[in-house]
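Worked example

This section walks through a single chain of length 188. The input is the sequence exactly as stored; nothing has been trimmed or padded.
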Amino acid sequence: MARHPHNLPTEFGDARVPIFLVNERMNQMLLEHLNPSAWRAKPPGKVRTIAAIFTHVHNVRTKWIRLTAPHLKVPRQLNRTRATREEVSAGLAESAARCVEMLAEALGGRIEMFRRDGWARPWPAGIEMLCYMLAHEAHHRGQVCMLAHQLGFSLTTEVDSGLWSWEKLWKESGWQDGPGSLHKFQEP
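Given that input, the structure is written out below as tokens.
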């Protein structure tokens, strides 16, 4: 396995897959609880609809996969003006599965560089890759929550709070022991 100065100890890297799965659970939770009328509601100004935002998240994932791990099956892109909530939910689940494979292969050394866009300089496929992916998706989840509220379709307190209930999200993502169970940090 090629190592570079940015690699963190393996025990930290092992958490990449469950962390990304928790990230995906947050996306699916928003989709599940979003008022159907909010899906295509047009915000004022030149702002994407919620449908376009979620479609963008999926389509960007397909670009990361195509550029970084072209040997993996790249999910089909979705049309932001026509995709239904169900199609986007299924598309996100599929692109999340490929992203998890890509992250696992980066951890195993098969993928050495993360190519986030054709115009951008590639990065080593270390923890920076996961952080970039999470930051991108968290940004857009924030947009969705804000737009839903501004359009009069506020999410319930259960959903708002649920986005921060990592122990529950972790378990819903298939990791029964919760955050911190994959690695034990030693006190200095």
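What to look for: The CA atoms of residues 10 and 31 lie 33 Å apart.
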